Amino acid sequence: xxxxxxxxxxxxxxxxxxxxxxxxxxxxxxxxxxxxxxxxxxxxxxxxxxxxxxxxxxxxxxxxxxxxxxxxxxxxxxxxxxxxxxxxxxxxxxxxxxxxxxxxxxxxxxxxxxxxxxxxxxxxxxxxxxxxxxxxxxxxxxxxxxxxxxxxxxxxxxxxxxxxxxxxxxxxxxxxxxxxxxxxxxxxxxxxxxxxxxxxxxxxxxxxxxxxxxxxxxxxxxxxxxxxxxxxxxxxxxxxxxxxxxxxxxxxxxxxxxxxxxxxxxxxxxxxxxxxxxxxxxxxxxxxxxxxxxxx
Length: 296
What we know:
alpha/beta, 7-stranded mixed β-sheet
């Protein structure tokens, strides 16, 4: 009986016809600590590393699936997509870029909004997708967030914003920048209605998103290691001509300097949100009833 391998001077050689390729997508290698794990285990840990807690980027649908009870939610304004108000052209026309991105990602734009139950509590969530033109903030992003806030006000529900963005969308110029004002105004109305707004900043949250709705939460929280800032570190370094502190613009750095309330591991996010929202629930007014005075 012949062996399945043959020994040669430089090691063991397996005949080509007997080699077996490992299918793609079975293993995950952490980019931070290089620990290898199965994709099944990686997904079970919500795309975080079991060894160093590195948080991989996940999309809006993934957040909806683990935040909402029984993966059940109703998406809002799912079919809204970008127009071309400026007839913008760079290496390709803006409508062509949007159409190509929609085809490659299966998304209509850089944010998805939905409502459902989180441990039995009603909640409206807006979550950004970085893979749609860098999670850039255009008119659709601003409008969908504004409508989600309106829905939260109408149904007396708290609002959670999950930000992940490279900033304003240059193809829409001033129309994009106006979304900063629009979303901020809507959040002011949410506050006037006495409804909680929690802002979760994930990797990366930069530009006009950081300068508007991402930093306006009643509670601003972040995932570990998330890049949070307005301009990028390279731009800042070139502008001021100095080396930046270690860990500059990381969630931990931002927390230390007072811009965040706390950092939360993704695996603990649902329970921490539930605890926070339970604490923020309005207390019903108690009607005091005077006790009868004892007869003398």
